[in-house]
Amino acid sequence: MVDVIKRDGRREPFVPEKIVVSAIKSGAPPNDARSIAQAIERDVQEGMKTDEIRRRVLEQLRARNPSWEQHWLIYDESVKKRAAGIAQPAMR
């Protein structure tokens, strides 16, 4: 099992199901959520920071449906009190 590094420096096992649950909460259908988690799981490496995993998940969400990414960011900002942390594409 691969350990990742949390924002506070703690190490914990990588759990792809966390990505699935969060992606579904962002509006992604379960099949898309699982596909995103599987793509991230293939690339995750020992000691990877959760901020990097988050960035990759957001890229996957944006590529499939930009509104899913926006829902994730809104949740991060409102519930987790986190800044978006990534550059947003210009709105058209």
Strands, count: 3
Q: Walk across the major sheet and give the strand order.
A: 2-1-3
What's the multimeric state?
A: single chain
- Tally of structural domains: 1
Task: Please give the alpha-carbon distance between the first and last residues.
Answer: 43 Å
Q: What spatial form do the alpha-carbon principal axes imply?
A: globular
Write up this protein.
The chain has 92 residues and is mainly α. The chain has one domain. Helices cover 57% and strands 9% of the residues. It has helices at residues 16-25, 30-43, 50-64, 66-78, and strands at 3-5, 11-13, 48-49. Strands 2-1-3 form a three-stranded mixed β-sheet. A hairpin with a 5-residue loop joins strand 1 and strand 2 (11-13). Helix 1 (16-25) packs antiparallel against helix 2, helix 2 (30-43) crosses helix 3 (50-64) and helix 3 (50-64) packs across helix 4. The protein starts with a strand and ends in a 14-residue tail after the last helix. The model is unreliable at 86-92 (pLDDT under 50).
